[in-house]
Amino acid sequence: MTALLDARGVLKRFGGLTAVDGVDIDISAGEMVGLIGPNGSGKTTLFDCLSRVSSLDSGSIRFDGVDITRHRPHQVARLGLARTFQLIRVYRDLTVSENMELSIQWGRVGTARLFGRTDPSTRRRVESLLEFLLLTRLRDERAGALSGGQRRLLEIGMALMSEPRLVLLDEATSGVNPTLVAEIADRLREVNASGVAILLVEHNVRFVAELCHRVVVLDRGAKLAEGTPRQVMENPAVIEAYFGAEGE
Amino acid sequence: MKSAASGEPRSGARLADSRRRRVLVRVSVGLLAMLALLPALPGVSNSTLFTLTLMLTSVAVAVNWNLTGGFTGYVDFGHAVWFGIGAYTTAILMSLQTNGPQVGWAAPPAIILGAVVAGVLAAAIGRATMRLKGPYFSIALLGTFVAVREIVRVSGGLTGGGVGLTLPPYLNRPLFYYLELALVAGLVAFTWWLRSTRFGAALVAIREDEVGAEMRGINTTRLKVTVFSFAGFSTGLFGGLWAYQNTFVDPDIAFVEVRTVDAVMGAMLGGLGTVAGPVVGTVVLFWLRELLWAHLLDYHLIAQGLLLIVIVLFLPRGLVGIVDPRGTSVTALWRRWTGRGARPDEQGKEP
Ligand SMILES: Nc1ncnc2c1ncn2[C@@H]1O[C@H](COP(=O)(O)OP(=O)(O)OP(=O)(O)O)[C@@H](O)[C@H]1O
Ligand SMILES: [Mg+2]
């Protein structure tokens, strides 16, 4: 079986700095994988490369058998790869439901639907996802007025609206209160159980260990270790990277 | 809004929306009927009708500018170029001569072709410039405006150069008035419809967060170039109509910076990114100028500057923005324009 996502030798430089240094990463359909590493180790940059927000300096990326190395971001999204952002991106001047309605699977929107209104089935999907994410009562609020945690949830909802096969989550729990973190963990488990693969960037290592079957560790742009949460956590190189250099 | 939402939890906002829509439709139909009856009133001269036709032209240009500036967030400082291109194409086609007898085109096809030329050029220029952000896009369009005017000035063989072109005169003020009234009403209705479609919502998404919109599957380039091209087409149409009524064009009256400035100011005063905003704003601005600033002579620019300050400080969402929350504010547009709302993620984006 071939992997859903298969990235080889992804390399990205910013001037003299190599932010991602030849990383290989693969994700199978329905898998939940954690991506951890100290600050500045290149996790977000790797996400930017995978979702094609950033161009890569070398390497290749295949998604579901399609070479997406030169795709534009919207093409990647239309293939079923969704993501959230470490620095939250929502449409602030629009309401929560409008944000959701704008995050449909655009690959299925032909000219006729492009010039049509939001249809009842989309609206129902929005309602059920908002309920799933505990956002129903905020439906008509401006997204800019939500708390950080609520915006994280909204962003997850927006990613799910597109019926993705893989979701890249960049720090879905940062700035979120502990009760809500537990809720998010539950929701992610449920999403994953429905067959959606998830790649999770997290600073909260316990959160990752609880959720993921497999963890990849980045350090200074390169892959340092890979394995089960336990294997990774007992790896001396990982302990060194986390506690030796900076002390998380 | 809030209380309505809590009173009727499931669809409060949508109900309020539809109630507001009904009021709006009634008000618009009433206004339209009044404007349609106007020429029949005693004491309404042809020159009044001409003034009103010019006002309708300004309204149309502001509505078109708002499609890219207000909805999509691309502040076009050269929008008047499409007006000039429509005007000149019309003038050239209508004044064609083969040594002696006039073989100029009839007005309707000439005006329509003028609009098409403006729309096609807007698509080409849009493709090239809409990858630029904020001030770079604005300045590129300002440059386009100046460049096209100079090209027209030096291409004497085709455009009559600095001397300009004279069109076959045809004066029927009421006809033009009705025609433009119908076209402006159609344009506003079209804008209102467009805003209610996924296409219109996606334009707003581009304004709010273009990287996010692209990442969520919206083909931002296609959408923004399409709407920019339509705005060029529509402004070109009104440019052609204007040239026909004016019976004369030269570079300095067809390509006028003030047309862009008025469109921007009108949209801001009325409410950026709203449907009714540019209409209300432009009408208010037009009558301020006719009635007040005409007496201020050289000081009218100061008055206009002061008005701009008042908008930014006290009316950032414009007159319509007070009741319609669906637009955006001058300050939000300014933040995005200068990139101060930008996030670090954007730096890695390729051109
Ligand atoms: N647009 C950019 N221009 C220049 N350098 C950048 C840019 N984006 C990231 N970097 C640098 O690349 C390196 C990797 O950054 P990145 O944000 O990918 O790390 P990260 O693992 O996501 O960190 P964090 O845990 O803090 O989110 C850092 O040294 C960062 O300073
Ligand atoms: Mg990061």
How is the topology of this model organized?
The complex is a heterodimer of chains A (248) and B (351).
Chain A: E1 5-14, E2 17-27, E3 32-36, H1 43-50, E4 58-63, E5 66-67, H2 73-79, E6 81-83, H3 96-101, H4 111-114, H5 120-132, H6 148-161, E7 166-170, H7 178-193, E8 197-201, H8 205-211, E9 214-219, E10 222-227, H9 229-234, H10 236-246
Parallel strand pairs in A: 3-8, 3-9, 6-7, 7-8
Antiparallel strand pairs in A: 1-2, 1-4, 4-5, 9-10
Helix pairs in contact in A: 5-6
Chain B: H1 2-7, H2 12-37, H3 46-72, H4 80-94, H5 107-129, H6 134-154, H7 156-159, E1 165-166, H8 173-196, H9 198-208, H10 210-215, H11 220-246, E2 248-249, H12 251-254, H13 257-270, H14 277-296, H15 300-314, H16 318-321, H17 330-338
Antiparallel strand pairs in B: 1-2
Bound molecules: adenosine-5'-triphosphate and magnesium ion.
Offer a concise description of the structure:
Chain A has 248 residues and is of the alpha/beta class. Helices cover 37% and strands 24% of the residues of chain A.
